[in-house]
């Protein structure tokens, strides 16, 4: 059999061959927005591949104001937090987002948000009826998502093996990967993998700060752990992260800087991809009006219509008016400022088929907030980007977009109509951006296995082998001074100094 044919058959039949029998799997989604959408997709993929999946979902904090829930083929268990807590959390969350949009987001404010999530976790674990119900289901595996650390504590409470989904690129969470600081940027350093001397100096110093911040974040769950786990068996969050059998990362080699990975770390960027369907006729008619000029797609995430200020809307609308392309902009009609005249070449819609539009032959540019799922979709279809980062991992994501020539970014506090219009014309007219986007698309599409096949195949492997101990380095069990050979260096230093003295 020819090698290409053999490879095709391997890729096609491997997931089915690995799956010997259906397993009971619990997926946990306690945060809304794109985090829920990702876990919904993971749950559906596992269900479609023969497993019996139950999603433990929180109600009341969806963070998706226009979300319409569809009927699922997997099971759902819902939990509603206390009303007073829900109001308190949403009040602080709104404040945090508003501060971030105005450039006033600080680590201390983020820490306060994590404190709220720690309190939320305590409310959940106090519900003995829910915890006991989950225990009685006797799940074989738990799949958790890494933003809130409560799902890790749920898995520990159930005493079940778990795998983790990292919804972003590497950086926000330290789970034990080798991170040579000479070319692996520390989160929030805004460095690439190509650092000069001062870049490496900055990266080293920021690494120490990042480590301290990680400990502060973990400490927000200390009270929860003390309340709900008996003394002598209380988990340490940093060790609990390393306990995961697998780490699935919602990114791809086409986007991330190359770096060392452990055997239990698997890229699955592109899980959200769905089969392309024709664009609705009203949008097709709008696109046709602009002929060869094509159109620009604008989608700034699920929450921007709620939190965006009028000044930003005016500047963006004015920038679009200076372009020959049509602009399809996802923005709620009900939130549009009444004193802003919509530009003639702009069409706003409450909802749009983002992936289908990105696959359209007439698209020229994608204006995005830099969310991980949106960037993965743009790379999938080879569309260059102009990014306007808002908070979280978005500045880091768009740094990678710029480093790989996939587009450019504009800081929201520097957003002016002229600047944005020039940036968009630059990306549309300079062919290097489209060429880089198409090259990234080829890398993204040419994996031997699809993201879904990698997800299912590796989970089946863990289920069949009884865990992922064989995929983890012994370093996870070593004290830090042994990992970094400090005891060896100290011994050699003593021998050297003793020899010199003698």
TrEMBL record:
Residues of the signal peptide: 1-22
UniProt entry keywords in alphabetical sequence: Glycoprotein, Glycosyltransferase, Membrane, Signal, Transferase, Transmembrane, Transmembrane helix
GO biological process, one term: cellular response to genistein
Localization annotation: Membrane
E.C. numbers: 2.4.1.17
GO molecular function terms attached to this record: glucuronosyltransferase activity
A Gene Ontology cellular-component term: UDP-N-acetylglucosamine transferase complex
Topology with respect to the bilayer: Single-pass membrane protein; Single-pass type I membrane protein
Primary residence: membrane
InterPro entries linked to this entry: UDP-glycosyltransferase (IPR050271), UDP_glucos_trans (IPR002213), UDP_glycos_trans_CS (IPR035595)
PROSITE patterns attached to this UniProt entry: UDPGT
Coiled coil, from the record: none
Reaction it catalyzes: glucuronate acceptor + UDP-alpha-D-glucuronate = acceptor beta-D-glucuronoside + UDP + H(+)
PANTHER family, per the entry: EG:EG0003.4 PROTEIN-RELATED, UDP-GLUCURONOSYLTRANSFERASE 3A2
Sequence similarity: Belongs to the UDP-glycosyltransferase family.
Function: UDP-glucuronosyltransferases catalyze phase II biotransformation reactions in which lipophilic substrates are conjugated with glucuronic acid to increase water solubility and enhance excretion. They are of major importance in the conjugation and subsequent elimination of potentially toxic xenobiotics and endogenous compounds.
UniProt protein name: UDP-glucuronosyltransferase
Species of origin: Loxodonta africana
